[in-house]
Amino acid sequence: MFRSFKGVTDTVVGYTGGTTPWPTYSSIGDHTEAIRVEFDPTLISYAELVRKVLEKSPPFMPQGRSQQYQSAIWYHSEAQESFVKNKIQALEEKRNKKATIRIEPADKFYRAEEYHQQYLAKMSRKRFG
């Protein structure tokens, strides 16, 4: 999904937010699966990326019990934190509903196994050849 946005230079699937060292898909521990998005801010802004994320994954969707599949946005600066929290608050006020998405500071990110990278594209090629 993100690779199709003009200005996104790379995406990496991985695990973050937990304490388990070197998690894997089969031993993820308390981490959440995540996508690290690298982008050229002269071509796409952080605000535009957040808007697109919230369109594709609304912040009001029920969270599962598993930490692995929680909706979250991890920020890297105070400016990003402020922007995301303000955006979520505005959406909550507009919908009169509490958001369920987690907003947290970025933590150590562990790259997922190679078979997880570009998973949907790989499955599409395998299926439609």
Q: Secondary-structure element order, as H and E?
A: EEHEHEEH
Sheet with the most strands: spatial strand order: 2-1-5
Estimated radius of gyration: 15 Å
The assigned structural class equals alpha+beta
Outline: globular
Spatial gap, N to C terminus: 20 Å
Describe the largest sheet. Answer: 3 strands, antiparallel
Helix content: 25-40%
**How many strand segments?**
5
Strand content: 15-25%
Number of helices: 3
**Unreliable stretches, pLDDT < 50, 5 or more residues?**
none
pLDDT averaged residue by residue: 85
Labels describing this entry:
129 residues, alpha+beta, two-stranded parallel ribbon, 3 helices, 30% helix, 22% strand
Walk me through the structure.
With 129 residues, this protein is of the alpha+beta class. The chain is built from three helices and five strands, in the order ββαβαββα. It has helices at 46-56, 78-95, 119-128; strands at residues 8-16, 32-39, 72-75, 102-105, 109-111. Strands 2-1-5 form a three-stranded antiparallel sheet, with no helix packed on it. Helix 2 (78-95) links the parallel strand 3 and strand 4 (102-105).
Could you give the topology of this structure?
Layout: E1 8-16, E2 32-39, H1 46-56, E3 72-75, H2 78-95, E4 102-105, E5 109-111, H3 119-128
Parallel strand pairs: 3-4
Antiparallel strand pairs: 1-2, 1-5
